[in-house]
Structures are given as C-alpha cells and as structure tokens.
Specification:
single chain; five-stranded mixed sheet; DNA-directed DNA polymerase activity; alpha+beta; DNA_pol_lambd_fingers_domain; about 600 residues; DNA polymerase, domain 1; Beta Polymerase, domain 2; globular; DNA-binding
DNA sequence: AGGCTGTACTG
DNA sequence: CAGTAC
DNA sequence: GCCT
C-alpha cells in the first residue's frame, strides 16, 4: 500500500528540460503549488547551495541549519565541478541516479521545528514508494534551512514553458518533440514572403509552416535562456555578415538617441552571436530570444535582396557619418554629437577652431588623441602595459595579483583599451594603494592624463557590509581610490636619447592608450574580475539575472541582497583570482563560462 | 502597458 | 540635472 | 523592438 505523503513542493530545477516528466511527477506526488503549504520540498538537487538558491527564487531566504558537524559546506572546491554542470538551463544528464548519499549522521533528529524547511532528494520519494512506507528523511536530506525572511516573491520568471500549458497547441499535427521552445513560430513581418499575398490562413499552410518549424535544427539548450550570461558567445559565429548589418542599424539608433532600439538590437545580436549554425530561414531565426518579427524581416531582406535597407541608409547618410565621427570622441555621446552638429560643425577641425574652449576637458583630450584612441592595441602591448603596472604595484607592496580583463581576456586579437584588475590577499594592502601606484607611474611618465579617478567602491568595497544607510563618504578625500581611468604612453622609444640631444622637446612617438586600473579588495576580487571581463550584454544580463532570478544585486564590487543591501559572500576560501571568479559563477547558480565565451557586444 | 544594468563622476 | 563612461 |  502506498504510503501517505505529507504536502510536498516539487522544485522544478533540473526537471525543466523534461516537462513531461515534471508534469507526471506533479500529478503522481500530488504536489502543492504554494511552497508555504508544503511540509517538505523535493527536488533533483544534490547541493546545499543549489537548494538554497532555488528556495530564494521562491521568495524564501534561508540560512542553513547545521545538523552535523561533519558535512563540508558545498562550496569547497571539489564540488565545483558538479555545480558547474548543474546549471539552470543545462540540466545534468537525465536519469540522475538517486542518492549517492552524502554522509549525514542521523543525529539530526533535533528540532523539527516549523521554522525550518527541508529539501530532500527526489530519491526519497521513489524510495519510499518502493518500500511502501516513508523512509527516514535523514538519509536524503540535502539542505535544511531556517527562514530568515520572506523576500519579495521573486517572480518565478520561467524561461521554459510550464508543463501545465504544454498540451495547448496540439491543434497542430506535428509531433510535439520539436517544440520545447515556444508556443509556436512567431509571425514575422506583416509582409514577409510567407503571408503577404496569401488569401487566408489555410490549414495546409499552417501545417507546412509547422513542418518547416519541426524540420529545423533544434535550438541549443543554452539558447532557451534569455540571459546571455547563461550562453556561450564566442568571438566568431557563422552569421557574422548579418550581424554586421544589425550592428550598423544599432549604431544608427544609438546616434539618433533611440536607447530602446539600441537595447533591442543588442539583445538580438547577442542571441544570434551565440547561435552555432548558419541561419537558413527567418523562421529559424525567429526562435531565438530577442529576435521577433522585425529582426526576422531584416534577415529575410538580407537573404533575398542581398542587403538591408535601413543599414544602407545609415551607411550613406552623411549627417550620420558626422555624428558618428563626433560620437567616437572620448567624452562625446549622442547629445554632444548632436549639439556639435547643430552648431554647424562637421569635422574635428571645426571643433578645434570654433569650439575648443566650449568643450569639456575629457572631450579636449578625446579630440587631441582622436586617431590614437581609435587605434587597436595588439595583445603583446596589452601584456606589456599590464606587466608594467603589476611590477610597479609589487614594488610598492609585494604580493599583488592581477588579471588582464576586457576584450583581451575574451581573446580578441586587439583591444580598444587595457583593463586590469589588481588585488592582494591581504585586505589592508589595497587601502590607499591606488594613489601611490598612480604617483609612481606618473613619476616615471607612463601616465599622461587621469581621465577619471573614482573612490566609489572602496568606501563600501573595502568594507562591503552595511553599505546601505549611510557610509561615511571618504573623509579626507583621496585615500581610498579604487578605479583609475588613464591615458598611458610608453615613455621610452629606441632613438629617444639621440632625439633629445637634437631637440629637447622631441616628441614621444608612442601611441597614447586608454588604461583602466581597478583595485579590488580581495574578498570581492572574483566579482571584479567577472565584472570587468564580459561584453556589455553579458554584464547587463548578469545583473538582470541576479536581480530577477535571485533577488541579488551584482556589480564588480560584490553581490548584495536587493532588499537590505547585505553583502553576500560567494568567494570565501582559498584560491587565486580565477578560482574566486569561478566561485561567483557557481554561487550565482551559473554554469562556468570561459571569458572567450562572453563575447557579447 | 511598462520596462529595459546600474552608478559615479563632471560641469 | 543631464550627459558620459565603465 | 521584444518580453512579460
């Protein structure tokens, strides 16, 4: 006889890839859909951390109830591998064997108080069924948490179709196997080739559309995620020619001040850039996140006409060319570009001659080094600059660690600027450090300008607790800088001595480079490395994911809770900067992405 | 129908 | 505050 | 422009 189960809530995580199985289990177990009614939570989870993350998504903020002295915390290193595989959208292989049990001593019959919530391995359920009675839960306990607070019900934004809705589109004759992604093909373009002159929605046409849909290659599982931080996005992809067109339109929108348009095109570009096949149809494209009717129509035009009209217009619009010229000046954005244009200026010379003292200092520097800043920096030079910085850092205080981030770390053959993150295992070593570093670099004439210098992070970054409310603003001023944005120039060149002999003011021929130096306190250095390594969309989506899915706020200075700003430490433990970065991924429930897979624009 | 990353700087 | 940058 |  089947045992009687208490009210159970079933975690969907790791079952999402198999909606049918999920649905079957939900029926069979007779789950409750409100976690507050549940006495037990079951799931295909094996790690404490993952269990806690899933509870957090459901609006329950818990802290672990330690039931044994022995069980190591889940974030120790050898668990990483497992956690990395087990991510949101890349479920581990189906048919996970139940219960290789973690050794939990059954001494845990302490207080089964109502304040705690227990997450058990699903195997407890199947085992109990087989045994015909409820098995002791101790052997299956993955995580026991005490509810600290209920947080704003973090909306269970699903990236996949809920099982209950699944059968809805069965009007179609197509086998359901191909349709895990969307409710159906989206219509694209009111005048797309498919629908323009069709008299009516004839049945056979619907069917053939569906058949075409079913015949497409399956979408890679990671492209079910709308978050580019959950997808590998390599530097190059099979659809780069089309992407170039989209990027042109995107930049045109940028120059026109259409932020929303820029956003939309950025999302689409990021999705296509992570699609590993050469696109063959607009329908195929329309399945990707962020790619709707407009993007599909553009693809169709590009394919059939060989060009995209809006991109052509952008390319041939002389006014846009001028705006683009201005926009590429450091310190000039859409507004200033248009402002300059409206003054009748059409070239850099116009700015210099007619408006030099009306533009900002940043913009003056930007104009002065316009060509140099646009020159790409080869990898060797990036490495050279970074090694100088590290040498100087270690000369002041030994033991600094550095990661070169930015495009360099993503594997680009050349970079627009140099981003380095420096940290030191000794928390005190980073205090008041950047000022010293800058002074020593300036003394040796590596730095020609400071574009900005900021102390935002060190005020709370050095001490991430209690930042909400009122942190004292850095008293005394510049004792805790943590970010410098500089103009850099290698001070020596081969013929320097001779040149100076002939002319004491001989020009240094080395190209001026933009260099970002970030000093991070050790405890959040993984976040700094992560935050400075991804492409724009990757970083945007990372923040978005943290907020929407976890109720966390991510930035390069750390992870905090949305509601009270309390710091969340995801990096504790030994390890270098790269290990710490990995910990942040896994602590956020994300599969590890190599930097070369973060190549969103 | 509303939202789109989030924040510190400069002027 | 608007504008820019990361 | 796309998503929820």
């Amino acid at each position: 006889m089947a045992p009687t189960f208490p009210p159970i809530y079933l975690l969907k995580w790791n079952l999402e890839h198999d909606p049918k199985e999920l649905h079957r289990l939900e029926e069979e177990i007779d789950v409750v859909f409100d976690i507050k009614e549940a006495k037990l939570v079951l799931g295909k989870v094996k790690l404490k951390r993952r269990a806690a993350l899933e509870l957090r998504k459901l609006g329950l903020d818990t802290e672990e109830v330690v039931t044994t002295e022995s069980e190591p915390d889940t974030d120790t290193d050898h668990n990483h591998h497992e956690e990395q595989i087990a991510s949101q959208i890349v479920p581990s292989a189906p048919g996970n064997p139940p219960a290789q049990r973690l050794a939990i001593s059954p001494r845990s019959t302490l207080r089964p108080s109502d304040e705690t919530i227990k997450v058990l391995d699903l195997a407890w359920y199947t085992g109990s069924l087989n045994a015909g009675k409820l098995l002791p839960i101790e052997d299956y306990l993955v995580y026991e948490g005490r509810i600290k607070s209920k947080i704003l019900p973090v909306k269970p934004k699903q990236t996949l179709l809920p099982a209950q809705v699944e059968p809805r589109r069965q009007i179609s004759t197509v086998s359901p196997t191909q349709r895990h992604f969307r409710t159906g093909p989206r219509k694209f373009g009111g005048n797309s080739v498919h629908s323009s002159s069709q008299p009516a929605r004839l049945l056979h046409k619907t069917t053939s559309e569906d058949e075409a849909y079913a015949a497409l290659p399956p979408i890679p599982k990671y492209l079910h995620s709308p978050y580019s931080c959950q997808r590998p996005t390599p530097l190059h992809c099979p659809n780069e020619d089309f992407l170039s067109e989209l990027r042109i339109i995107k930049q045109a929108r940028n120059l026109k001040g259409d932020e929303v348009g820029v956003r939309a095109y950025s999302v689409a570009v990021a999705a296509i850039a992570s699609y590993p096949y050469s696109l063959t149809s607009a329908l195929e494209l329309s399945r990707l996140p962020g790619c709707g009717s407009k993007i599909s129509k553009l693809w169709q035009d590009w394919k059939t006409l060989g060009h995209v009209e809006e991109a052509d217009e952008a390319r041939s619009d002389p006014d846009l060319q001028v705006l683009d010229l201005f926009w590429k000046i450091h310190g000039v954005g859409e507004a200033s570009a248009r402002d300059f244009f409206s003054k009748g200026w059409r070239s850099l010379d116009d700015i210099v001659e007619q408006g030099w003292d009306r533009i900002s200092r940043d913009q003056q520097i930007g104009v002065k080094y316009y060509d140099e800043f646009l020159q790409r920096i080869p990898r060797e030079e990036v490495e050279k600059i970074a090694s100088v910085i590290l040498d100087y850092a270690n000369h002041i205080r030994d033991g600094f660690r550095m990661v070169i981030c930015g495009g360099y770390r993503r594997g680009k053959p050349d970079s627009g600027d140099v981003d380095v993150v420096l940290s030191h295992p000794n928390e005190n070593a980073t205090h008041r450090f950047l000022v010293e570093l800058l002074e020593s670099l300036e003394r040796d004439e590596y730095i020609t300008h400071r574009l900005i210098v900021s102390m935002k992070n060190s005020d709370r970054g050095q001490n991430p607790l209690n930042w909400k409310g009122s942190m004292p603003r850095s008293r005394g001023g510049f004792d805790s800088l943590d970010h410098a944005f500089l103009v850099w120039q290698e001070p020596t060149w081969p013929s320097k001595d001779e040149d100076l002999k002939g002319n004491p003011d001989a020009r240094n021929p080395n190209v001026h480079r933009r260099v970002d130096i970030i000093i991070s306190p050790w405890k959040t250095a993984g976040c700094a490395v992560l935050g400075w390594s991804g492409g724009t969309m990757f970083e945007r989506d990372l923040r978005h994911y943290c907020k929407q899915q976890l109720g966390f706020k991510f930035d390069s200075t750390g992870v905090r809770r949305q509601d009270n700003g309390e710091w969340v430490d995801l990096e504790k433990g030994d390890g270098d900067l790269l290990v710490k970065e990995r910990r942040v991924f896994s602590g956020l429930g994300l599969e590890w992405r190599d930097p070369t897979e973060r190549c969103t624009d």
